[in-house]
Amino acid sequence: MGEPQQGGKPFGISKREVWQAYQRVAANKGAPGVDGVALETFEEDLKNNLYRIWNRMSSGSYFPPPVRAVPIPKKGGVRILGVPTIADRIAQTVVARRLEPRMEEIFHDDSDGYRPGRSAIDAVGKCRERCWRYNWVIDLDVQKFFDSCPHDLIVKAVEANTAQRWIVLYVKRWLVAPLQHADGSLEARERGTPQGSAVSPCLANLFLHYAFDRWMAREFPSVRFERYVDDAVVHCVSERQALAVKEAIGARMAQVGLNLHPGKTRIVYCGDSNRRDRHDEVTFGFLGYTFRPRAALNKRTGAMFTSFAPAMSRDKLTAKGEEVRAWRLHLRTGGTLADLADQINPVVRGWMQYWGHFNKSQMYGLLQRINAYLMRWARKKYRRLRSRRRLDAWWERLVANEPGMFAHWAWVTGCGLAFAGR
Fold first, then answer.
1. What is the pLDDT of residues 211-227, one digit of tens each?
2. Cα separation of 354 and 182, whole Å?
3. Alpha-carbon distances of 329 from 332, 339, 372, 380, 381, rounded to whole Å
């Protein structure tokens, strides 16, 4: 299939595509790349900046700058995010938008990551239901996936799904664009695709479609799984099957240049009131949720039972608790409560929307901690509220008169009194 041309350019990329890519990048915002140009600065000369991207991409002369390396602390180490420049993000989005329709045609139904109309919550919901139907889970962890996936196989996957030479050309250039560290040093990249770039999720999904999804459908057609980019859970009917499938997946990952993490890839038993066998591993994490046996209420009979179910993970609760502490709400006495609400509501609402889908009561302690900081704020701002009795009365009136002021008051209006008194 030939490539349509525009304005005598060798590659058929329209200016409208570049404009639409810019709109997506602008909506996502994000930090500057190695050139230090923020989105607001880029937009000061928007027309000319977008024209340069279109002109270079459509002529084949677009070469990506280095990607800014940003270390992100994580449990047990550091994750390196690669932040492209605003212009490079737009160019990558042009390619991602070209590939996405084809990917939707071929992708497995249980691949939910970065796909239109799907979300991580969809994957968590499917995982929950299948944990009720299947007794065993393989909790997969691909070791350093974004740093390790082979460039040649990524390119091969792209070539299999486009006739546009320019898409393959620019994917090859992005894959080898170096990482630039804070000291200005450049790190060459011979494998992997950096997390943080606009095209990486697209390339990672396409690679794993062939490396995992299609292989699973061919080798184990009856085995169900959920995959969200490199995070995957596989469901098995027996421990024997789980051991065999885990070994086969490990061999397959080695075949495509990857490794399963030996300490994090585990076989888990989904115990509940009806499944009472003993096993060393009875809990696993998936997309910020922890799955494990939990006390539950039968709404029809009122009886308590044990369900294997997800809730916000302890790691996420700890991280968000540290974030709440870092806000130092109790010291922001120069503003009003309405000012505080405007600042924190969008963030807290996002937490509730994501982790409130399953066993939202797991979040109550975190939300109560916000209330405790608000009460400390009131005690510092208003001398008359230094007594416990007056503070409690003020709080009760406030919640009654302004029930929608803070997003989390829809679930929690009380607080930990011992914490508030600190």
1. 999 999 999 999 999 99
2. 33
3. 5, 11, 10, 11, 11
